[in-house]
Amino acid sequence: METIDPALLLSAYAQGLFPMADGADDPSVHWVEPRLRAILPLDGFRLSRSLRKTIVADRFRVTTDTVFPEMLALCAEAAPDRPTTWINPVIKASYERLFRLGHAHSVECWLDGELAGGLYGVSLGRAFFGESMVSRARDASKVALAHLVARLRAGGWRLLDCQFITPHLASLGAIEIPQADYLAQLYSVLSGTEGAAGAGAAGAAGAALPSPPFVAGDWGALDAVGAAAAAGFGTDRATGSPPGYVIAQLLT
Predict the structure, then answer these.
(1) Residue 161, strand partner residues
(2) How far apart are CA 47 and CA 141, in angstroms?
(3) Main-chain dihedrals φ then ψ at residue 215, nearest 5 degrees
(4) Alpha helices (runs of H) in 101-215, residue ranges in sequence order
(5) Do 189 and 126 form a contact (C-beta atoms < 8 A)?
(6) With contact defined as beta carbons under 8 Å apart, do 91 and 19 qualify?
(7) How far apart are CA 237 and CA 46, in angstroms?
(8) DSSP state at residue 41
(9) Which of 89, 133, 154, 175 is placed for a possible disulfide with 119 were both Cys, Cβ 3.0 to 4.6 Å?
(10) What pTM, to 2 d.p., does this model score?
(11) What are phi and psi of 179, to 5 degrees?
(12) CA separation, residue 234 to residues 58, 152, 218, 229, 243 (Å)
């Protein structure tokens, strides 16, 4: 199966680009650089009362990186509200390869033993690029995104890219910014200069593309938090994400 070279793919993300296909059956892939970019500030996730109740009740069993190919395939499936997607075979194979290299992750929500929704994305340094999210049960994608934000916050990430704004993402705290401002944030995160003079939006045009290696976030930090919390209650949370009350506390 043809794939995009991982080094090329990661280099594109570092420059604010990402690949898409025009449809699931389209054999070609093109690079996208939106004029306006959606991000979700990691300290700005909107945890509604109803969503908090769902999370704390542990309605879904949430795992990470356990069925990445299946999660990607679920995101690629057609649905009544989404008759086609931009995820073609080249995209699938490319991101499965990134996953095997440790640069892609998934968050999975399970209900009654079935995969009910979730998301996947790309990790580079302390920036996480959300690629796609899906629900096959009410609130599954919202719960997955809440768990992702908590995981990124616990692990030291600084940027969550959502690519394009949607009403669904906006309701959860996503905002839209000009691409130049996005690049300024991305470059400062990758170079580790957040908060430094010249690292703001005004410095985007003249900022140099940071060079790897980039300081990476800790994907497993949240699991350690959850294990410590569970130990206090005498329960075993060796697998899966922490209990919902831990996620809710991290988000508030």
Answers:
(1) 39, 129
(2) 13
(3) -65, 125
(4) 140-155, 167-171, 179-191
(5) yes
(6) yes
(7) 26
(8) -
(9) 133
(10) 0.91
(11) -60, -35
(12) 17, 26, 26, 9, 13
Interstrand relation of 36-39 and 61-64 (parallel, antiparallel or unpaired): unpaired
In angstroms, the CA 20 to CA 86 distance is 6
Query: In this model, does residue 125 exceed pLDDT 90?
Result: yes
**CA distance linking residue 21 with residue 8, whole number of Å:** 17
Q: What value does the mean pLDDT of the chain take?
A: 90
Position 205 pLDDT exceeds 90: no
What would the DSSP string read from start to end of 106-136? EEEEEETTEEEEEEEEEEETTEEEEEEEEES
Q: How far is it between the farthest Cα atoms of the chain? A: 54
Fill in the amino acid letter for 252.
Answer: T
- Burial per residue of 188-224, b for 16 or more beta-carbon CB atoms within 10 angstroms, e otherwise: bbbbeeeeeeebeeebbeebeebeeebebbebebbbe
Q: What is the pLDDT at residue 207?
A: 63
Q: 235 Cβ partners below 8 Å, 6+ apart?
A: none
Chain length of the chain? 252
- How many whole angstroms separate alpha carbon 38 and alpha carbon 139? 21
Residue 21 · residue 87 · CB < 8 Å: yes
Strand 18-20 and strand 30-32: the pairing is: antiparallel
pLDDT (tens digit per residue) in 5-54: 999 999 999 999 999 999 888 989 999 999 999 999 999 999 999 999 99
